[in-house]
Structure formats: structure tokens, C-alpha cells
What we know:
Distance between the termini: 18 Å
GO molecular function, one term: transferase activity
Number of strands: 12
Pfam family, one: ThuA
Number of helices: 5
Protein name: Class I glutamine amidotransferase-like protein
CATH architecture: 3-Layer(aba) Sandwich
CATH class: Alpha Beta
Keywords: Glutamine amidotransferase, Transferase
InterPro entries: Class_I_gatase-like (IPR029062), ThuA-like (IPR029010)
Amino acid sequence: MSAIGVPLGVLVFSKTTGFRHDSIPAGISAFQRLANQSQSGEATLPRPFTVTATEDASVFTDAGLSKFGVIVLLQTSGDFLTEAQLEALKVFVHAGGGVVAVHCASTGMPSHPWYGRMIGAVFTDHPEPQHGMVTIEDPGHGIIRGTLGKGKGNWHNLEELAEPGSGRANARWECFDEWYNYARNPRSVGGIHVLYSVDETTYKGGKHGQDHPIAWCQEFEGGRSFYTALGHFDQAYSDEAFLGQLLNAIAWTSCQLD
């Protein structure tokens, strides 16, 4: 990984061999803006970062990935890596590399269980896009800190719950997005730390009942990973709350935040 004081290299990778989201260009532009803000000081981070955006999977070699501290899997889908390229990703993670995975990334590499474990869930299906209510489960986590109440989404009941030490806040975020269902509940996967979940009573088509995580992070085989199921539409990539979480996720997965 890069030395302290040197900008962190972030690879934004968006190759698809399955469904391709129209919001990929908006996502790339958003990460480039965040990088510029980190370098100008507009975004307060322990360390600035640079972005390299590509869909050329030949970068997935040990030497190619050694230039980066974090890989953003932006809407990747299908078997977008060869076996050798997936092995390079494993080496990267085992060496302490960070992974930030967005929305459709949970559909990627469907025949490789290791990839699903790294993401934390495997996509199965989703209902039509609709409004749903997101509950913030860990407002004090570094990825969430400073993002509550911001952005274009509708925020409700931002006061903390009365129960001391609950670790939760009664913060609910109304969003319009695709609400992904998974092969198994991510909370059942060892090591997953859920950051927010969606209330299935606020939309139609959920399949996980009262507990439906949609964003989480984990320490994984020497590295760190973060995943959010939000981000289907272009509008997400101009939303201050969502972008703040992606920014913090880069810092957290590169071990700059606790």
C-alpha cells in the first residue's frame, strides 16, 4: 500500500458482463469529484486520494493492483474477471487492500463463492424501483459519521433512541432505489457489521422480513470491504449523504478510520 503522506491510489473498476447500469458514468464522475475534493482539502480525510477509472481487467495482476490501496467495484456484474484476475484480487485483499462495492457489484462473479463472501451477499432479485425507508443502525461508525441529515433524501426522527448503549439511532432515510434481495441474509454471514437496513413494510417485494440489511462492512481475510445496495440511479451520485458514505468508505477500507 502507499506510504503515509502520499495520495492513496483508488481504482474505480466498472466492467460488466451481465446487466449494465446507466448510472455508471455518473458514479465514475462522482468518485473523480471526491478525489479532487480530497486533494483540495474541501473533503476532510486523513489522506487525499487519486482515482484511476477503467474497465480494462488486465490491471488485475499483482503488479497492477500494487499501485492502489482501495478498489471500487462500481456496478460490476457477471463474470467480469478471469480466474487469474480473481486470484490477483485475492492477493490484494490478503495484503490489506480495501474494497468498496456499489449496488450491482453483488451480482458479480456468481460462480465464485469467495467473491460473494468478500462482498457479504449474493444478489437474487429485486422488485421495481420504489420509495423505501432506510434505518441507520450504527450512526457512530466511521462510514456513517457526518452524513446523517444531509443530501436530497427525506430524513426523519434524527434524535437518538432512549435506550442507553443501544448503539442505534432513530434515524430513518427515505430513498427511491432498487431494493435488492439476497441468497441469504448478510447478517448471518460471520463478521458482517450492518450499517443500515431497509424497512420492508415501506415498500413491496422484500424477501427478508423484519431484518433486511442493505449496507455493511467487514474485516475480511486481511483486508476490509464495504458494500451498499443503494446507487441504482444517477441521482444517488449527486446526493451528499450517499457520497459522504462512499468517501468515508474509502477512508475506512484503507484503514484511515475506525
